[in-house]
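Much of what follows relies on a compact textual record of a protein's fold. The record below shows the convention in full:
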Amino acid sequence: MKSRFLIGVVVSALLLVLLFWKIPLPDVARAFAEASLAGLAITVLIHALVLSLKVVRWNIVLGSVPAPRPRPRWLVFDSLFLGYFGNYALPAKLGEVGRSILYSRRSGTPFSAVFASIVFERFLDALVLVGGFYAVVLGVGLPVPMPGWVDRSLQIAAAITLAGLAALYLFWKHLPQRLEPSRDESRRSRLLTRLGRLASGFRAGLAILETPLIGAHALLWTILIWSIEAVSVWICLQSFGVDIHWSAPVLQMVVTSFAIATPSAPGGLGIHQWATVLVLAPYGVSASDAAASSIVLMLAVVFWVVPLGLHGLWRQGSSRAELEAQYQALS
């Protein structure tokens, strides 16, 4: 965990040094000084809506996962915000692990089942992002040439997404619902029994595949979530006086969403800024405006997830130290 965090910090630090060597800080400060405060405030508020809709979607996905007991009030909300808090403010992007641990502890649902529901969500996000972008490219077209590296990267992302969804389906389809534990007491057999228990729990977390209607419901919410996210990017750019074709916010949203998954400091610091600058450059957006808008879009999420994630952790009777201890036990 520490090594991954250090690698991420080094990557982000190098990217930020290169970014602000290319873009003088006074230019970024000038972009903020000339920005519309009303537009920036609306951007922050829209991100609260987006995060809340993600709570609704995860609740739908979890509705198909068997739970041994009624879950506490606010658990879905608190767990999800804790997850985003972990991804944006903690080392090594352990948010999804912490989100799974908290929900599992408080609901009694196996950790692997909760984690499977999040994996399904992530592939659903990737499917909508890639599918939506190519729907724009093929159906409407772009007013500027798309950079070759963007096209190649998204083709790879599309292939990984389809392969991942197929793997999840095959795993759910062919793995038995319950794996019989071995009566052998050897160390190897105990390990296989534990792995079998984890696999069975993971399969249970994919129960949404048994109910296509619920899956379609989750897909529709995902489309709505990312559509609103694209609107927030457009409003943010407008706040900096950038009047731009509506395909640009879609492209920025798609590319940065995949880019920040790579090793970096919490929140994708550095990577998010560079991806935004490179994607918006063909549209004629200045590097200072692109970098400033990227910073706002990151802070709009941090503004909500840090206080609400910490409050949710407290409300559910847990602490960061406890979550880290349980993460170490899992690994």
The chain has one domain: 2-330.
